[in-house]
Amino acid sequence: MSDNSAQYSVEGARDAAERGALGDWVARFLSSPGSDNAGLAEQLTEPPRWWLGPVQLPLDRLHRLAGPPGAPVLCPLDEEDWRDDVDDMQRRIEQGWVPPPVIVTYRNDQLVLEDGNHRAEGLRRTGARETWAVVGCDSAEDRNRFAVPPAPAPEAD
Fold first, then answer.
1. What is the value of pTM for the model shown?
2. Which has more pLDDT, 147 or 113?
3. 3-state secondary structure the chain
């Protein structure tokens, strides 16, 4: 893991949200080594968005943009590259690694997985049903309409 692993963790995102700096966190995360996606960072932060999170979202509600050939995605990836990256993520998750939140946009009442397709698939393969996410909305109205299903209450002993 990189030296930035704590900064780009769920806790790092939560700290940024508490400071009102979640949009900056998203831009730095996407531009950081490992993500290396400054273009997406610029696209998702200019014009500014309304960000919320980190929140847990069901994996089956996320509409993937990238994935293996034959999957319902906009950008099919080379099977070998996809498989190797996802296999590595799955192994790391099974060993206790908690991946950084995925980056999602809420548009047209859908949750679009902008960054984290490999992490989401690695989680799916471990049997996980949810992932931590940071969600961007184009307007305050969308942010207010966005509804996250409440987490179940802990069971009493």
1. 0.79
2. 113
3. CCCCCCCCCHHHHHHHHHCCCHHHHHHHHHHCCCCCCHHHHHHHHCCCCEEEEEEEEEHHHEEECEECCCCCCCEECCHHHHHHHHHHHHHHHHCCCCCCCEEEEEECCEEEEEECHHHHHHHHHCCCCEEEEEEEECCHHHHHHCCCCCCCCCCCC
